[in-house]
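To the wet lab folks,

You asked to see what we're planning to order before we commit. Fair enough. Below is the target structure as tokens, and below that is the sequence we designed to fit it. If anything looks off to you, flag it before the synthesis order goes out.
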């Protein structure tokens, strides 16, 4: 019988790509999302790609009573918990909202998993937990830095809550996946990132500039101590990331994981903002109107992953290069532009 995976935040950017890969791998998928930062029609994109529409619940996971219906209706074998707010600036302006949502939903999920004997959890974490590391590339053993924002703190505390819960139980096992910078979209151009309002992140902003919705891309800082003065990040294709979640679920269900494991998910390559702009232009033939401006407060100068642990112990390796990330992102943007 097919195993069932509950994907919280499954209509969102990384969630929707993961649902596609889970279904392709033969899992039954149940999606829960409150649609606070995504649209229900991503399910139509998933259906078009996989010919299967996952069962969907529009529920706010802060409501435990409503959420319990999912567990009483389905025998959930594993949970992938994406559902969370993720805008750094917003979290600084409204920290309680972030703590309430990101931690409240995690607590409810853990309690429901315990109540309904679900033993396997994949948690969506972030490289933000490392701050600006002293040594690059970053391994999973790199000391965690005090969080630079309430958002980052919810990821750190989330990991701690899971560890404590595992220590108190002989059943729960979990894998936390620390993402570097996910970009790109499904090859079909049918699902992708859908930021609401003016995007904060580099690629969604750039796409709107190229698409003509925004005037100019501001490159935040040209005087960093990097090869061209702009910040360096480890960009990773969202489909590669999605596949890592399937492998993590397999590992948990096959009882091949330790009780708690953490993996960095990146390519191991660092690219500067100017590298990314240049590669986008080469990949698409489009020209980007950009200007180097002041640094953005809170940005780390450079970060990229040591991927050996994920390669050796998760059995996963990123396959797609920056050019592929950017051409698929552009295909998705063109899809959005045709629809509007
Ligand atoms: N960035 C930029 N202009 C933008 C948005 C981001 O120059 O409009 C830079 C930012 O300073 C960082 C990189 O792009 O060096 C990636 O930023 P993003 O917000 O996408 O992700 P972060 O690494 O902050 O999580």
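Sequence we intend to order:
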């Amino acid at each position: 019988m097919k195993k069932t995976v509950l994907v919280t935040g499954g209509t969102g950017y990384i969630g929707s790509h993961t649902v596609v890969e889970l279904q392709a791998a033969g899992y039954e998928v149940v999606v829960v999302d409150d649609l606070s930062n995504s649209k229900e029609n991503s399910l139509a994109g998933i259906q078009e790609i996989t010919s299967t529409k996952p069962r969907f619940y529009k529920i706010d996971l802060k409501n435990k009573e409503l959420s319990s219906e999912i567990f009483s209706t389905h025998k959930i074998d594993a949970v992938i918990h994406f559902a969370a707010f993720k805008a750094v600036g917003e979290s600084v302006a409204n920290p309680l909202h972030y703590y309430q949502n990101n931690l409240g939903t995690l607590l409810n999920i853990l309690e429901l998993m315990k109540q309904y004997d679900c033993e396997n959890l994949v948690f969506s974490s972030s490289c933000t937990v490392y701050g600006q590391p002293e040594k690059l590339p970053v391994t999973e053993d790199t000391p965690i830095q005090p969080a630079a924002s309430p958002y980052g703190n919810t990821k750190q505390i989330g990991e701690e809550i899971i560890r404590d819960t595992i220590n108190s139980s002989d059943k729960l096992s979990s894998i936390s996946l620390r993402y570097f910078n996910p970009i790109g979209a499904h090859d079909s151009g049918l699902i992708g990132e859908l930021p609401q309002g003016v995007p904060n992140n580099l690629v969604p902003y750039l796409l709107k500039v190229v698409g003509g919705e925004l005037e100019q891309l501001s490159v935040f800082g040209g005087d960093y101590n990097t090869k061209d003065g702009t910040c360096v990040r480890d960009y990773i294709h969202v489909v590669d990331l999605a596949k890592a979640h399937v492998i993590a679920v397999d590992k948990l269900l096959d009882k091949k994981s330790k009780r708690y494991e953490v993996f960095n998910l990146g390519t191991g390559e660092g690219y500067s903002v100017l590298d990314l702009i240049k590669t986008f232009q080469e990949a698409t033939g489009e020209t980007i109107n950009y200007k180097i401006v002041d640094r953005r407060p809170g940005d780390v100068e450079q970060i990229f992953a040591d991927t050996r642990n994920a390669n050796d112990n998760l059995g996963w390796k990123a396959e797609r290069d920056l050019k592929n990330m950017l051409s698929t992102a552009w295909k998705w943007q063109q899809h959005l532009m045709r629809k509007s």
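Structural context that might help your review: The two ends are 42 Å apart (CA to CA). The longest helix spans residues 95-115.

Thanks,
Computational group
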